[in-house]
């Protein structure tokens, strides 16, 4: 019997790394890609390869190395992603382009490179790692949310197009999870906060809110969700780690006015603090 093969992007950290370890211990052959490939675990069954999903050349080299070592890929997990946080008005266009080139176009580059072989084999599964915020948006998270919203509608469209070839595309929608994602998100807060900006207190407020929020999910929890999505006989369109992750998305999607009121109130409260402070000074 052929060994199951999975390609995991973002395997040097967080969920991708935990997934590489989980699939490998379950006996799968894992091809893990990341820019810091030296951080990809090197246990049995894992092949660590350099990959920058923002570069077509890098994706091509990555896939060429994989095709030298296997003739099939059963599952692709597009786990790469990061949050470029900041006010819609002020995040530089170059940073927005890199966000989309990584979170959205990165998944497209990988998928277009692997789909032809999945079609030939008449089977395959593509797991796209989105975020609850792709539906339940929040202030200063607009560009990250937009990249994940795009990923979701793209994945759903892909799913109906490739199902006739025995291939499914599905979304895993994590909520806050203990990984390096959070520190990278705070780095973007620092990059995109300007002392003279009218949004300074909004940025500080969201940063504080995020700091005080204690994520309970771990990378390993999400790796188990990826594994379920990869091995379910009939995969679902959406996978969530917890009921609260599902609830947030449910409210934002099915009760958009309630979500808008909630987020407006949070935003106004943070902005009012700023206006009051300005008036006092
Ligand atoms: N953690 C959360 O709270 C949370 C919540 C919702 C959704 N998510 C989503 O979950 C996914 C996994 O994130 P995580 O929490 O595991 O974050 P993480 O620990 O920061 O891992 C991100 C991974 O992406 C890789 N990566 C970034 N840019 C890349 C590029 N251009 N090319 C190749 N690899 C790249 C990083 O490796 P290198 O730096 O070595 O390239 C790293 O392995 C992401 O899509 C994220 O948006 C996370």
Automatic annotation (TrEMBL):
Show the Pfam families listed in the entry. adh_short
**First and last residue of the signal peptide:** none
Entry keyword set: Oxidoreductase
* Gene3D superfamilies named in the record: NAD(P)-binding Rossmann-like Domain
Q: Which family does it belong to?
A: Belongs to the short-chain dehydrogenases/reductases (SDR) family.
This chain's protein is named: Short-chain dehydrogenase/reductase
Q: Which organism is it from?
A: Lactiplantibacillus pentosus
Q: Source organism lineage?
A: Bacteria, Bacillati, Bacillota, Bacilli, Lactobacillales
